[in-house]
């Protein structure tokens, strides 16, 4: 800061250019990192959806198949 006087003797203070608020800088850095992580996770998810094979379904047990057929009214073979 510099103090000056004008031709009438009035003093005034000239402030230098202020930088960015430190809190704002921290907020921007943390926000940028969070967005970067989210974007990276989304990109990996999309890549995995395209390249990984589909999950194999568990085989249905014979007991469950028999129970389902009985529910539908179809008798199980051998009965």
Automatic annotation (TrEMBL):
Chain spans, region Disordered: 53-79
GO CC annotation: nucleus
Compartments reported by the entry: Nucleus
Family annotation (Pfam families): S1FA
Keyword Membrane annotated: yes
InterPro entries reported for this sequence: S1FA_DNA-bd
Compositionally skewed regions (Basic residues) per UniProt: 53-69
Top-level taxon of origin: Eukaryota
Any Gene Ontology biological process: regulation of DNA-templated transcription
Record-level Gene Ontology MF annotations: DNA binding
Keyword DNA-binding tagged: yes
Task of the protein: DNA-binding protein that specifically recognizes a negative element (S1F) within the RPS1 promoter.
Matches recorded under PANTHER family: DNA-BINDING PROTEIN S1FA1-RELATED (PTHR35298:SF11), DNA-BINDING PROTEIN S1FA2 (PTHR35298)
Family, per entry: Belongs to the S1FA transcription factor family.
Protein name: DNA-binding protein S1FA2
Lineage, opening ranks: Eukaryota, Viridiplantae, Streptophyta, Embryophyta, Tracheophyta
Gene designation: S1FA2
């Amino acid at each position: 800061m510099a103090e000056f006087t004008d031709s009438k003797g009035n003093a005034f203070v000239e402030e230098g250019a202020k930088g960015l608020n430190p809190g704002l800088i921290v907020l921007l850095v943390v926000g940028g990192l969070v967005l970067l992580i989210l974007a990276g996770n989304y990109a990996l998810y999309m890549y995995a959806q395209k390249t990984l094979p589909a999950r194999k379904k568990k085989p249905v047990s014979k007991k469950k198949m028999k129970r389902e057929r009985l529910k539908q009214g179809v008798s199980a073979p051998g009965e």
